[in-house]
Amino acid sequence: MKLIIAIVQDEDANRLVTSLMNDGYGVTKLATTGGFLRAGNTTLMIGVQAHKLDQAMDIIEKVCKSRKQIATTPSPMSGGNGGYVPFPIEVVVGGATVFVLDVDQFKKY
Ligand code: 2BA
Hints:
Blueprint: E1 2-8, H1 10-22, E2 26-33, E3 40-48, H2 53-63, E4 67-72, E5 88-93, E6 96-102
Antiparallel strand pairs: 1-3, 1-6, 2-3, 4-5
């Protein structure tokens, strides 16, 4: 069994959950925040049988679009002595950042 952890944009999340559920996948949706933009995104945990992994990845790739986003530069993690001026930057976000992990055990009690 595999666990897919997919970080997607909020705009794509509902459509992706619907598509996965319609094809029989179990999905857990988490509200998360990106470290760079400090903006909301969505992380999905999807447990799949190994033979259904490729199909799930195809669905993620099909549904999730990359988008340009204008953001102000995030504050430095640890500031100096002030004087920091945020300025707008353009970044391309997504479609999806996906990790695939081997599952050691899967149980439902
Ligand atoms: P954020 O960390 O908010 O990053 C949003 C977008 O900002 C990234 O899109 C990328 O285009 C840009 N970006 C990130 N770090 C940057 C940097 N140091 N310099 C310049 N631009 C930077 P994506 O790559 O599509 O990532 C979307 C979201 O996926 C990320 O949101 C983060 O929540 C997650 N993510 C990406 N890579 C990850 C990783 N290696 N581990 C864990 N989460 C990751």
